[in-house]
Amino acid sequence: MHERFDLDVFVELDLYDPNAEHAAEREELLKLLVAEGCTVDEMVEADRRGRLFALAGDRLLVPGPVALSLAQIAERVGIRTAAVATYWRALGWEEPPGPDIPVATAKDAEAIEAAAYIASFLGEEKAIAFVQSAARAMESVAEALSAAVRSIPTASVATSSELDTARFYVKRIRGFDRFARLFDNLFRRSIVTVRQHFEESQSYDISAQGMMRVAVGFFDMSGFTALSQTLEVDVLTRLLSRFEGVVETNVRAIRGRLVKFIGDEAMVVAPTPDALATFALALVGRPIESEGVSVRVRGGLDYGGVLARDGDYFGKPVNLAARLVSVAAPGQALATEAFIDSIQRRDDAERLPPRPVRGFDELIEIYRLR
Known about the structure:
The protein is an alpha+beta fold.
């Protein structure tokens, strides 16, 4: 392992000082980096950024060498170089300096090949949109994992040595093949779930326009903003986690879909208004409680055709549901006339006086679910 290891080289590059307090530890770190195949140039650049401890893990995450140009990938995949550049940008990677300069690993080439395959049946425009959406989703997953790892004391640069941190990352990243299996299974099951959701929504007549007919709901914890001014951060965090857990548990029960969390607000869609009504009543019927703090949930609901794009939904029903939640009282779920007209138990809703809603010119007929 150490045949190519020469401390004098690292001294000349200011990567090693034999008289430094932690010289022995730095020597072991450099040996680890050499063993993982990191180049001297990579070490110098990582040290310049104060990230030498992370270099071995980075090498495992993106195994080199960086040896392929866009033109070489194009030849390997059998597509134009311009198409490779388009897919490269869609993946969100750094702009390449030129088509003939090595910028990619073999794994990068596999990703481009996958994008080309997707384009073969979706068409280039839709494939690019899908790849961009997938890249954004994976960035969110990576951010969530990174935040979780940073919260582990042994992974903190502030509380452990460079060598300990490097060894921690290397040990964990060696098991990252498990993530590939996790993501593969999640993706396959999600495809089935999304297809079932579409079938239940009875949206075949508008699907060619990228539309779906769904029940849309927005739900938030009433008064949470005010609480955030008085409660400790860890208490707020646990309260949010409790809210998120309740939302996720209940949305699975109705075979709906959690679209996103926006702070203390959740956007949920369901294939039928009856399903979303069941969800809404369960959510607003009980307060969210954590460590003696109790917060009521409120909701806004609408039903109709929406544009389904990149895992999100857009259109009037979305906008109106978002507005209704802001005027609902704590523990109250307000719904539009379109929503109420589409549920089986219409008599379970109380009609309220029509009222103006911000962003809409006409008075809106509003009902309270009960």
